[in-house]
From TrEMBL:
This is Uncharacterized protein. The lineage of its organism: Bacteria, Bacillati, Bacillota, Clostridia, Lachnospirales. It comes from [Ruminococcus] lactaris ATCC 29176. It comes from the Bacteria. Keywords: Membrane, Transmembrane, Transmembrane helix. The chain crosses the membrane at residues 6-25.
Length: 39
């Protein structure tokens, strides 16, 4: 039982990390495009 909970927790943390990185990259790309348009 504890093993299953640990596996779920690891999957949740990995998924959350990937999601945060994805959002950060998308935000960074939008900022980069806006900087290019302003110049």
């Amino acid at each position: 039982m504890f093993y299953a909970f640990g596996a779920f927790l690891i999957l949740y943390l990995v998924g959350a990390s990937i999601y945060q990185i994805f959002l950060w990259i998308r935000k960074w790309r939008e900022k980069k495009e806006n900087d290019i348009e302003e110049k």
